[in-house]
Amino acid sequence: MISNESEQVEYAIEAKGLSKHFGNNIAVNKLDLKIPKGSIYGFLGPNGCGKSTSIRLLTGLLEASEGDVTILGNPLLGHEEALKKRIGYMTQKFSLYDDLTVQENLNFVGAIYGFVGKRKKARLEELLALYDLEKQAKQFAGSMSGGQKQRLALACATLHSPELLFLDEPTSAVDPENRREFWERLFDLCAAGTTILVSTHYMDEAERCHALAIMEEGNKRADGSPQALMDAMPATVVEVSGNKLRQLKQTLTQHPEILSAAQIGAHLRVLVKKKVQDPLSLISTLSDGRETVLARPSLEDVFVTCTGDRYVD
Amino acid sequence: MWIRIYAIFIKELKQLSRDRMTFGMIIMIPLVQLMLFGYAINTDARHIHVGLVDLSQTSESRAVEQALVATQSVDFIARYRSIKEAEVAITKGEIRAVLYLPADMTRRLFNHPLYDHKQTDSQLTQPIGQWIVDGSDTVIASTIRALRNMPLDEVANHTATRTAPSFEVVQYFNPEQRTVVNIVPGLVAVILTMTMILFTSSAIVRESEHGNMEFLITTPVRSIELMIGKIAPYVLVGLLQVAIILYVGHWMFSVPIKGSILSLLGSSILFIFASLTLGLVLSTIAKTQLQSMQMTIFILLPSILLSGFMFPYDAMPVAAQWIAEALPVTHFMRMIRAIALRDASLLLLGKDALWLGLFTIGGIIIASLRFKKTLG
């Protein structure tokens, strides 16, 4: 858990001005990060926003064009090999062997991390039980469901009990039920002291993180805890209900003080710039007396206000 | 380090044994190629289809025909009334050559200095007939050319007055001159080139293509460990193939295996290592399995054509010989033929063995340097 109260916060990841260029294309632009030990940190952003590249830079998979990274107290540059034993990485695509069984996959990864004999056997049994894979032990990984594959991947990534775990869109191929369960496991790991960095494009997942960074086109647009981000949002949320909402949306989005309007069920969710003194009356006037109420901001609203051309400094 | 190499080795072996297609190919490629090449390739042409234009129509001309058929070199499949007709048949490809026996063939035969002891005037000496050959195929042409001095003693009812040949030729190691004796050991080299390079070049690429590499890089596995672990199973595969080809070749085509098993094993292992590292270097260049396949073929063709497998090394121009020298297969071709057919020992072939060793070391250095880069 985050130890905000403690005097000195220890960081699992510190990055300063981290950049990666592929030719003229800037994949990651001057990223600054401070991720405290024992927390779950999220990268939230659309596909192609630089989440995966950032993770690859932080794991030492890619070499940064610029910037300094400190992982678990050691500079990444020059300590890649030593750090590999202390970090775990679960790739976006299933990266284990489809033509090996669950047991064989675990065996292989165990041996790679130097587990042998009784120690390996004990660890494998522990993991099979922990990740509910005992029945699938003899099954080929390729024939398993998305949820089972994901549990196997997590078991392999955490086999050597890493202090820092990177997860690149871990739940993109999993149903909501399995996603929920997966996050429970992440919190278990976190409670045991593991720092977790997870990338996602799901708002509800981002909301579970202790802190997160919203990313777009290689830039970090905002960061902080979900609550802090919502509090600091430069907009007020007004919900409009009534009829002909599609037409109303067209007129509202033209207005310079309105950042966005999106229909959610029978409501229109309108984001009005914070500097507007009385947003309710503004919207009332604009929407010809339809019913208007102030609403609690959500993470999606934060995301909307700090990405795209609605981005407000 | 050894734990990790062993883990990769076991994993690779398991995957290989489950990939039935690949596993089948390991056994079937040598067997099928052996049948094909063993039976099909023959550089001494027999039963060439030829035609006959017999203007003499005598018992002697028929006797000449019989004598030619008895050599088994040619089969007369058609008769023509004129040279013109026969030429058309050659152009059409119905026959490869035609024998023209002129009307005065009998007189020419009996006046021929070989059979007419009193005949001394060389002015009167004329050949008794003429072969017209489709010379575009050099093997056919040289077979027919060999008939030029065919003895016709029985036809002429005379023992030929013949001088002793300038040279006596004794054929060591393959006295019956069977092509297959030279082909089978050569086939070992060609098939190993093909399978070893193909399997290794795609083995590493497959890891990246299936996304396994991304995970492996974040583990403590070092690139040299990964490479050794991945290619080690193929050493066994290669030795299995050598055994299949030599054993089946010995059993089906009675190809002798004269050399010691130790020399065979030693030279095979040297060549397998050289081919595997060549495959590794290719795998660091290729991005997909298709690309690695294309590069394998790029290496394979010169390996078949320039290594001395099909055409004698000595007959090639110097520039081609240089290219051939660079290919590991040329050296192994020499070694395996020398060991299997001529009972040479590995020590006698030190130069070739040294080259294969150097090639392997160089290949491993290049592969691990390049491999590092592809991770970064």
UniProtKB/TrEMBL annotation, chain A:
<dbReference type="InterPro" id="IPR003593">
    <property type="entry name" value="AAA+_ATPase"/>
</dbReference>
<dbReference type="InterPro" id="IPR003439">
    <property type="entry name" value="ABC_transporter-like_ATP-bd"/>
</dbReference>
<protein>
    <submittedName>
        <fullName>ABC-2 type transport system ATP-binding protein</fullName>
    </submittedName>
</protein>
<dbReference type="Pfam" id="PF00005">
    <property type="entry name" value="ABC_tran"/>
</dbReference>
<feature type="domain" description="ABC transporter">
    <location>
        <begin position="13"/>
        <end position="242"/>
    </location>
</feature>
<keyword id="KW-0067">ATP-binding</keyword>
<dbReference type="InterPro" id="IPR017871">
    <property type="entry name" value="ABC_transporter-like_CS"/>
</dbReference>
<dbReference type="GO" id="GO:0005524">
    <property type="term" value="F:ATP binding"/>
</dbReference>
<dbReference type="InterPro" id="IPR027417">
    <property type="entry name" value="P-loop_NTPase"/>
</dbReference>
<dbReference type="GO" id="GO:0016887">
    <property type="term" value="F:ATP hydrolysis activity"/>
</dbReference>
<keyword id="KW-0547">Nucleotide-binding</keyword>
From TrEMBL, chain B:
<dbReference type="InterPro" id="IPR013525">
    <property type="entry name" value="ABC2_TM"/>
</dbReference>
<feature type="transmembrane region" description="Helical">
    <location>
        <begin position="353"/>
        <end position="371"/>
    </location>
</feature>
<comment type="similarity">
    <text>Belongs to the ABC-2 integral membrane protein family.</text>
</comment>
<keyword id="KW-0812">Transmembrane</keyword>
<keyword id="KW-0813">Transport</keyword>
<dbReference type="InterPro" id="IPR000412">
    <property type="entry name" value="ABC_2_transport"/>
</dbReference>
<dbReference type="Pfam" id="PF12698">
    <property type="entry name" value="ABC2_membrane_3"/>
</dbReference>
<keyword id="KW-1003">Cell membrane</keyword>
<feature type="transmembrane region" description="Helical">
    <location>
        <begin position="295"/>
        <end position="313"/>
    </location>
</feature>
<feature type="transmembrane region" description="Helical">
    <location>
        <begin position="259"/>
        <end position="283"/>
    </location>
</feature>
<dbReference type="InterPro" id="IPR051449">
    <property type="entry name" value="ABC-2_transporter_component"/>
</dbReference>
<keyword id="KW-1133">Transmembrane helix</keyword>
<dbReference type="GO" id="GO:0140359">
    <property type="term" value="F:ABC-type transporter activity"/>
</dbReference>
<dbReference type="InterPro" id="IPR047817">
    <property type="entry name" value="ABC2_TM_bact-type"/>
</dbReference>
<dbReference type="GO" id="GO:0043190">
    <property type="term" value="C:ATP-binding cassette (ABC) transporter complex"/>
</dbReference>
<feature type="transmembrane region" description="Helical">
    <location>
        <begin position="21"/>
        <end position="41"/>
    </location>
</feature>
<protein>
    <recommendedName>
        <fullName>Transport permease protein</fullName>
    </recommendedName>
</protein>
<keyword id="KW-0472">Membrane</keyword>
<feature type="transmembrane region" description="Helical">
    <location>
        <begin position="231"/>
        <end position="253"/>
    </location>
</feature>
<feature type="domain" description="ABC transmembrane type-2">
    <location>
        <begin position="137"/>
        <end position="374"/>
    </location>
</feature>
<feature type="transmembrane region" description="Helical">
    <location>
        <begin position="183"/>
        <end position="205"/>
    </location>
</feature>
